[in-house]
Amino acid sequence: MPKINIERVAGMNICYHLFTTEYFLDSLCRLGMKSVEFWGGYPHQFISEKSYPPVKTIRRMIEERGLNLICYTPEQIQYYYNIAAREDDIREDSVEHFRRCIYAAAEMGAPKMLMTCGWGYQDEDREEAWKRSRESLHNLGEYAGKMGIILALENLQQVESNLIYTLPQLKKMLDELQCPAFKAIVDTVPMHLAGETMKDYIEAFGDDLVHTHLVDGNPTGHLAWGEGELPLDEDVQTLCDLSYKGTMSFEVCGGNNFDPESEMKKSFTRIGPYLG
Asked: How many CB atoms lie under 10 A from the CB of residue 207?
């Protein structure tokens, strides 16, 4: 059976938000993990006109521990940024924010940055919000290309966005963008909520599927592997069988925030049999 290189599997700091960045990085080392997907949100890192802490400090902290940064993921759901906003000032401010994030990703040495599509009002023409999102994404894609950063566009849950929450919608946006900087990412929670499979995503995107969020749910929740009801063993087996070449991480947002290391350990232990 094909195996997954351990360096393609990352821990993510969003569930460590009650702990310091140093604790998070040391925790991954204690667990034997080799790679990081770094969440850009308070208090660990937030990109603004004056980012704190400086991105080069984060890069040094990661490199000092011999860890590999595989993706930078600025917070996009909890904060007010919305690249599809009808209000010009909100939309323009959001695009400018993510331009700063792309620059930060390059400064940190990340090969890719996660992006989402924003959302439109429920009582407006969805197509108008779609056009605004596409225009914003195109703007960001051109800048990312100049900076040498891949933008991994993620599927969301329908409660998070009314624009991209299924595979066909994700593919439609990428096809319309026709931008080489954009690739696809799949999150297992919205994937299963939509009745889709990992095989569907690999067949649709091939090597352009560059990242996967492996999270459990009931059926929602972004839980540690084994804490929910989703068939993650089947998902990872499919990734192995179909020679998936991208990276993956545990975007655990639920569970015990007072003991995030135990939450991360659950997922990392479960993927152990698939690692080579």
From this structure: 11
Per-residue pLDDT tens over the stretch 215-247: 999 999 999 999 999 999 999 999 999 999 999
Q: Where are the alpha helices (DSSP H) in the chain?
A: 21-31, 55-64, 88-108, 126-147, 167-177, 188-193, 198-205, 232-241, 260-271
Structure tokens at 169: 């919608």
Q: What is the pLDDT of residue 59?
A: 96
**45 pLDDT exceeds 90?**
no
Nearby residues of 54 by Cβ (< 8 Å), 6 or more positions away: none
Please check whether residue 153 lies inside any domain of the structure: yes
Closest CA to 219 of 152, 158, 153, 154: 158
Q: Is residue 1 part of a domain?
A: no
Q: What total of structural domains would you count in the chain?
A: 1
Distances (CA, A) of 82 to 36, 46, 95, 129: 26, 16, 8, 11
Scored b (16 or more CB within 10 A) or e, 130-143 reads: bebbbebbbbbbeb
CATH number for the domain that contains residue 171: 3.20.20.150
- Which residue bears the tokens 């066909």? 168
Which residue range(s) make up the domain with 249? 6-274
Predicted TM-score (pTM) of the model is 0.96
To the nearest whole percent, how much of the chain has pLDDT over 70?
98
Mean pLDDT for all residues in the chain: 95
Express each pLDDT in 132-143 by its tens digit: 999 999 999 999
Rounded CA-CA distance 36/24 in Å is 10
